[in-house]
Specification:
This protein has 494 residues and is α/β, with parallel strands linked by helices. Among the domains are: 276 residues, Alpha-Beta Barrel (TIM Barrel), CATH 3.20.20; 65 residues. The protein is built from 19 helices and nine strands. A nine-stranded parallel sheet has the order 5-4-3-2-1-9-8-7-6. α11 links the parallel β8 and β9. α7 packs parallel to α9, α9 crosses α13 and α17 runs parallel beside α19. The longest helix is centred in the last third of the chain and has 23 residues. It is globular.
Length: 494
């Protein structure tokens, strides 16, 4: 590895030769509040503070295809992100934000085609064509079955939606990352470093195979694939993980899929600092944890970064804590000097050894998944979920036995801790969201709504790309829940 250079296959040392000397990573802050209006205010505030790209957090009903006024959404509207049920909500969310200039990342999976359709339609309402849009949609459904649980349809039907988005974006959104394959949530569920890498890339292989089966060329769509990783507490471990990830992906694309396009070999990834490492006890300690994790991501060569706020173990982040989290990135970028050298830890015997160990161990685990028939079979037979569960159990057991020290939790506790100024959910805003949605449904052209949904149902029963019909539904004021329910009728639920 000592002879490898940044910007040269297999890209262990970085995907670009000069890395941050030429361009800093995109600084994002993940945010979504109780309403589209309040979230819009937060986005404007963050942009004024120097955020380079937006990252949208959606509430649970939006993630699993329920409108805010659905009885099944009760008690969850606006809790963990912004509720988006209609094109009206999306227009408000991005009001006075120039979408042709801003890169937007949307953490959404089961309902990814619908939220992308909302985003495209909102942009058009601003006079911006889809060909000018820049950003990423997560669109990674496979890890939902093992790590998060926000799936709707059976895996096979979900995979159709994933590849339809990839296919559509290749023709209509040339600057859009069509899928962000997430190891972050796998790690949050309790996986090890090796499991995070192996399960993420096994899922990626399944997506590549499905896209090829659909007739897509990995040399082309491979350029639009990105990844999303966790930065946990193990500083040297995390740096090595990111280096191993680049080598793994380049090797997989070249050797397994015969990819020759350099851009399609690159493992471009976003990193979020470890949410599961944050503690409700002594919340200021979380600032230190986030700083260490952010530094590991940067020294590991990330292209985009979100730093968690200190209070996220307790509530949606306050504006002040979100600002501190952003300042953490900015201080590293402009004051630390680490951006002056690509892969500054390259050559360290510890880093090189760990990088190679992670690469080899992950390759072996991917081979094991291959022997089962691939990621979908490994998910269906419970292998992935069981492996993560066992690792999570071991991790927690080590904390409970004090083998692993968590400062403020099992050592150096502070009984007199005072927690204040948390961001609260405003029940008034929740009621406004529901009332406005009901009015939206009452005053629209419901004949057009029904006709659009019927057309969507027919397309879903066939094998044509479903995205144009979803966009047509959105433009005719169909809601997220109505579109999701129409697909439920055809695909069923998992």
């Amino acid at each position: 590895m000592k002879d490898e250079k940044p910007g040269v296959y297999p890209f262990t040392r970085g995907i670009y030769s000069n890395m941050y000397q030429d361009r800093l990573w995109t600084m994002r802050q993940y945010a979504g509040l109780t309403s589209a209006k309040e979230s819009n205010k937060r986005y404007h505030s963050l942009l004024k503070q120097g955020v380079m790209g937006l990252s949208v957090a959606f509430d649970l009903p939006t993630q699993i295809g329920y409108d805010s006024d659905n009885p099944l959404a009760a008690g969850e509207v606006g809790k963990v992100g912004v509720p988006i049920s209609s094109i009206e909500n999306m227009d408000i969310l991005f009001d006075n934000i120039p979408l042709e200039k801003i890169s937007t990342s949307m953490t959404i999976n089961a309902t990814a085609p619908i939220l992308l359709a909302f985003y495209i339609s909102t942009a058009e309402n601003q006079g911006v064509t889809s060909r000018k849009l820049k950003g990423t949609i997560q669109n990674d459904i496979l890890k939902e079955y093992t790590a998060r649980g926000t799936y709707i349809y059976p895996p096979e039907n979900s995979m159709r939606l994933v590849t339809d988005v990839m296919d559509f974006c290749e023709s209509h959104l040339p600057y859009w990352n069509t899928i962000s394959i997430s190891g972050y949530h796998i790690r949050e569920a309790g996986s090890t470093v090796v499991q995070e890498l192996a399960f993420t890339f096994a899922n990626a292989i399944a997506y590549i195979e499905a896209a090829i089966k659909k007739g897509l060329d990995p040399n082309k769509f491979g350029e639009k694939i990105s990844f999303f990783f966790n930065a946990h507490n193990g500083f040297l471990e995390e740096i090595s993980k990111f280096r191993a990830a680049r080598k793994l992906w380049a090797t997989i694309m070249k050797e397994r899929f015969s990819v020759t396009n350099k851009k399609a070999l690159l493992c471009r990834f976003h990193v979020q600092t470890g949410g599961s490492t944050l503690t409700a006890q002594q919340v200021d300690n979380n600032i230190v944890r986030t700083s260490i994790q952010a530094l590991s991501a940067i020294l590991g060569g990330t292209q985009s970064l979100h730093t968690n706020s200190k209070d996220e173990a307790l509530a949606l982040p306050s504006l002040d804590s979100a600002k501190t989290a952003l300042r953490t990135q900015q201080i590293i970028a402009y004051e630390s000097g680490v951006t002056e050298h690509p892969d500054p830890f390259g050559g360290s015997y510890v880093i090189e050894k760990m990088t190679e160990e992670f690469f080899n161990a992950s390759t072996e685990l991917i081979a094991k998944i291959d022997s089962m028939g691939g990621a979908i079979e490994a998910i269906n037979n419970g292998f992935v979920e069981n492996e993560i569960s066992n690792s999570a159990y071991e991790y927690q057991k080590n904390i409970d036995s004090n083998e692993n020290i968590i400062v403020g939790v099992n050592k150096f506790e502070d009984e007199d801790e005072d927690i204040n100024s948390l961001q609260n959910i405003d029940p008034v805003e929740v009621e406004k969201q529901i009332d406005k949605l009901r009015y939206f449904k009452e005053t629209r052209n419901n004949i057009q709504v029904n006709e659009s949904l019927k057309k969507l149902q027919i397309t879903a029963k066939g094998d044509e790309n479903i995205m144009p019909d979803i966009i047509h539904c959105v433009k005719n004021n169909c809601t997220l829940g109505e579109i999701s329910d129409t697909l439920r009728l055809v695909f069923g639920e998992h």
